Amino acid sequence: MPGKMVAIFGASLVLGILFAVSQAFKVEISPEHSTIAQIGDSMALTCSTTGCESPSFSWRTQIDSPLNGKVRTEGAKSILTMDPVSFENEHSYLCTATCGSGKLERGIQVDIYSFPKDPEIQFSGPLEVGKPVVVKCVAPDVYPVDRLEINLFKGDQLLDSQAFLEEMAKKSLETKSLEVTFTPVIEDIGKALVCRAKLLIDQTDSISKERETIKELQVYTSPTNTVISVHPSTRLHEGGAVTMTCSSEGLPAPEIFWGKKLGNEVLQLLSGNATLTLIAMRMEDSGIYVCEGVNLIGRDKTEVELVVQEKPFTVDISPRSPVVAQIGDSVVLTCVAVGCDSPSFSWRTQTDSALSGEVKTEGAKSTLTLSSVSFEDEEFYLCAVTCLQRTLEKRTRVELYSFHEDPEIEMSGPLIHGKPVTVNCTVPNVYPFDLLEIELLKGETILKHFRYFGWEMGIKSLEAKSLETTFIPTTEDTGKALVCLAKLHSAEMNSEPKQRQSMQLLYVNVAPKETTIWVSPSPVLEEGSPVNLTCSSDGFPAPQILWSRQLNNGELQPLSENTTLTFVSTKMEDSGIYVCEGINQAGISRKSVELIIQVSQKDIQLTVFPSKSVQEGDTVIISCTCGNVPETWIILKKKAKTGDMVLKSVDGSYTILKAQLQDAGVYECESKTEVGSQLRSLTLDVKGRENDKGSFSPELLALYCASSLVIPAIGMIIYFARKANMKGSYSLVEAQKSKV
Fold this sequence. Notes:
Blueprint: H1 2-13, E1 26-30, E2 34-38, E3 43-50, E4 56-61, E5 70-74, E6 77-82, E7 92-99, E8 102-113, E9 120-123, E10 133-142, E11 148-154, E12 157-163, E13 174-182, E14 192-200, E15 208-216, E16 221-231, E17 235-236, E18 242-251, E19 255-261, E20 267-271, E21 275-278, E22 287-295, E23 298-308, E24 314-318, E25 323-326, E26 331-338, E27 344-349, E28 358-362, E29 365-370, E30 380-387, E31 390-403, E32 408-411, E33 421-431, E34 436-442, E35 445-451, E36 463-471, E37 481-488, E38 498-505, E39 510-520, E40 524-526, E41 531-540, E42 544-550, E43 556-560, E44 564-567, E45 576-584, E46 587-598, E47 604-609, E48 613-615, E49 620-626, E50 633-638, E51 645-646, E52 653-656, E53 665-673, E54 676-687, H2 698-725, H3 732-735
Parallel strand pairs: 2-8, 17-23, 25-31, 40-46, 48-54
Antiparallel strand pairs: 1-3, 3-6, 4-7, 5-6, 7-8, 9-10, 10-13, 11-12, 11-14, 14-15, 16-18, 18-21, 19-20, 19-22, 22-23, 24-26, 26-29, 27-30, 28-29, 30-31, 31-33, 32-33, 33-36, 34-35, 34-37, 37-38, 39-41, 41-44, 42-43, 42-45, 45-46, 47-49, 49-52, 50-51, 50-53, 53-54
């Protein structure tokens, strides 16, 4: 179907029916040619005219199907709005504009797609060592499905990949998945499982959208070999004591939980310790006790039955267990004897610790008042009633909690765009930890969530518990609310948790960047000239500008905090490297520029040795010297009608070992600096020698030998003289360079 739509759209582009309309009447449609939109989004097509005062518009599809949109016309413009975009909007749309007897049409192809959610990773069960598991990567609500590709990775390993090109695209949202079976091993712990879905959303395959989901693998072994040992026996007399010890194997090491079966197979949680000790046993303590080894992958339990003899009369205690109170509150426990005329009462804890409350007895009722309860008061409380030499006990448990303060949010540093930051949410003075749940949210996104600190069960102290995560802030996060939500659940299943939260608005800083320096008029100046060095830097908050000068030892000497550094009259000693720094709390951006202050150049000298008129075969040295202080370019040339020839000189000196007639001519020396140039020239005359093959003059030989020694010596003198008066000379290649 997309191929047919392209053909229809191509035909629609050539529709331009013109009936007796002025040459200036034109119609344009926006966007041009074609557009693509996601299902559920809003899209507008705009048809506008020029050259007509009162045009009229009409919209239709190429196949005359319903528009499925709303048309709004304003003067010379008509807008077709599709909100939301649906399958019915995948058409080639035509806009017809009429002006008098003239009519023009323009068309546009509208394609749609759906790729609204990240893929989902699903497991067929928990990841147990050595047990095959099916992992499923699901891409929901996709259209067109024939342009979908799904890849599944475990760490850097590609487990499988699937494209759905062979499937015909239907006009419906479809959910596609990729299934892979693998057997977890211990080495898989901590590896990342990545499901990546890619949707090619145009016909050229040049535009694609990609979504992925990552899960960190945790591999476990379920608890096994859970065993209970009982001392002294499973059959007890009322008032006796029993100790039960439980052990279990698994990865990670299972936590041990003790419970007692109640009616309807309900299990009452008793302890989170490996050893459970019960003293002053009563008839109600008879029953089946369950030890369960629990880790994140599973659980394994075993049972033991305790039998305690009957009681002679009844005792009731209220409130019934558990009595939940916040640390610092007051609690009143009431014990009532039924079926005894003159009962005697006594209160104690199951661990025989000292009572911290006040006991008051009246007739068949006794009360224990605990004022400002603390950790020492979190006990099983037993009320013993003696009647005619028979004693019964009832107990209730006081459970404490602490949840006084809102959570506290702390950051590892200022929020800087693109720089990871660690946020910590701390719940202070909380108890018990095994019922605590903490959630960190950024806007409506959950950054991290953790429930139950079960492994800390049994610790009695007010402590701060925290949840920490790291995220990378962007400028889009500014204004979003960072929320820390803390919930303290109740031991009772149907009770609503207590909640507290804190909120902090995010403000993301952007480190300085794109620091730029402008030098006016130039970084190379003559001594005494004015110059302005202007610096700018982008960032949030706006960076502070600091100008410094770089010293010879590399250190920076602060100069100014103004945007522009001004020199009214420059001096030679002002030459150097100047550094501009853009600074805010997010970072520093630095830029430097070299300022070169020069003096005006001195006259240059062009000389020839031994003279301007030489004999053929003589050695000739042409030298160019300059007394400039700043760095100088020296270029030696020989002038000719066909063009100047640059001579390869050494320190401004050019040597002709054996002069030929063609070496005669005009020689020119050009001295250049950043602030100007000078020219000098001379004419060399080379005369031919008489042909004297039959004789050889000893005087000529002596002169030749002498000159072979004198000429290098003179060259050395010129070399050291030039070294003392100037900085360097350059060949043709070097002469073309510019320096600042």
